[in-house]
Amino acid sequence: MLACINKRLIFASEIKELRRGQCPLFNCPKMELKDQIRQAVDEKLAGTETFLVDVKASPSKIAVFVDHPAGMKLEECVEISRHLESLPGLQSIFETHELEVSSPGLDEPLKVQKQYQKRIGQEVSVLLKNGIRKNGTLKSAGENEFVIVERKNRKENGRKSFEMVDQIIPLDDVKETKVVFNFNKILR
């Protein structure tokens, strides 16, 4: 078990040596550790096209998700992993936590603006915070919003037809955006 004293992570076995009231167990939130890892990854990736997507921490594992406009190579993930494991402030963490550095999986939602830019032209499914789901082709991505082209069905003179409509979606309204993979198109 870990605790945090004066911004320093310590093991539970070390706590016995402390005076009563000096350290409540788990006073160090996961966010602090995640923020340290984010900062270390951002520093490592500075000046490159590779970008940090997310950091997830559990009691036994730390997962770092990174991406690149052209896709991630295994060697790049290994390099980031070795960099993190070599940092003096984080070495003790990786003695007790498994470190995994990878690109986000196909089933992971888009989380950062650069992921939206990378996926322009692909089908996406957007769940808004109000519960409405929108599906369409990602047309563009800006800093605060993105645009999908949505197929709208309509009836005209008793005949069914459709039109393609641009939908501007503010990122603040989005609960989750996932890429929709159509494996039938890939296999053709």
Characterise the protein shown here.
The protein is an alpha+beta fold and 188 residues long. The chain has two domains: 2-102, 2-Layer Sandwich (Alpha-Beta Plaits), CATH 3.30.70; 113-187, SH3 type barrels, CATH 2.30.30. It has helices at residues 12-15, 30-45, 74-86, 93-96, 113-118, 183-187; strands at residues 2-5, 8-11, 51-57, 61-67, 98-102, 123-128, 133-141, 145-156, 159-170, 174-179. A five-stranded antiparallel β-sheet has the order 9-8-7-6-10. Strand 1 and strand 2 form a beta hairpin. It is elongated and about 70 Å long. The protein starts with a strand and ends with a helix. Mean pLDDT is 84; it is low at 1-31.
CATH architecture of the largest domain: 2-Layer Sandwich
Number of strands: 10
Q: What order do the SSEs take from the amino end to the carboxyl end, as H and E?
A: EEHHEEHHEHEEEEEH
Largest sheet: 5 strands, antiparallel
Low-confidence blocks of residues: 1-31
**Mean residue pLDDT:** 84
CATH fold name of the largest domain, please?
A: Alpha-Beta Plaits
Structural classification: alpha+beta
Question: What spatial form do the alpha-carbon principal axes imply?
Answer: elongated
Strand content: 35-45%
Helix count, DSSP H or I runs of 4 or more residues: 6
Quick description:
By secondary structure, the protein is of the alpha+beta class. The protein has six helices and ten strands, in the order ββααββααβαβββββα.
